[in-house]
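Lab channel / #folding
Pinned by the channel admin:
"Please post every new chain as: sequence first, then the structure tokens as a reply. Keep commentary short and put observations after the output so the thread stays searchable."

First post following the new format, from NK:
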Amino acid sequence: MSTSASLLARHVLRRRIALLAGCGLAIVILASVLFLAASTTMSGFTARIVAGAAAPPTADDGVIDADAPLTVDDDDHSAMTRLDPALRDALRAAQAAASAEGITFEVTSGWRSDGYQRWLLTDAIRTHGSREIAEQYVAAPEVSSHVTGHAVDIGPLDAQLWLADHGREWGLCQTYANERWHFERATDAGGECPTPHLDARG
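Reply from TO:
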């Protein structure tokens, strides 16, 4: 074999080796992607995509700054202005009575837009890894009492305990056993509160 032929053969061999190495690397990468996809639940995978794409909700959607909760007398924030009027009136009447005992209600959440509730649920799915678990803590928008304006979250602890003891005088009841802060107008003033649901699934 001539020198030129030998050099050509070596060049072709090197190109074939490089091509095979490249294909091998591509196969390894593809296998890794498939493994990751198989090990991720569909709900978790969807949640990550949606959460990354969705714009964060704003005050217009009912978001209340965690460092600046509202009072029951707020007439500007959508979280309060879009509450059911009967619930808002009951809260204000209860606050007037609680004030005599030095108790102040802090509204940490009230009305929420459909988009805000969906955003919260998506975040909960990402946190807990499945929609089934997430819905124990965050109701779907189509069944959420926050979206209809019929629920409010109250802090701090002394206000929650006061409402749990006295809220039924204004029809205010804790409706979820796992959320001591969540209250709805679930009975007539002075009536008996229904047994709370175990969680947000109702």
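NK: DSSP finds seven helices and four strands in the chain.
TO: also worth noting, Residues 28-53 have pLDDT under 50 and may be disordered.
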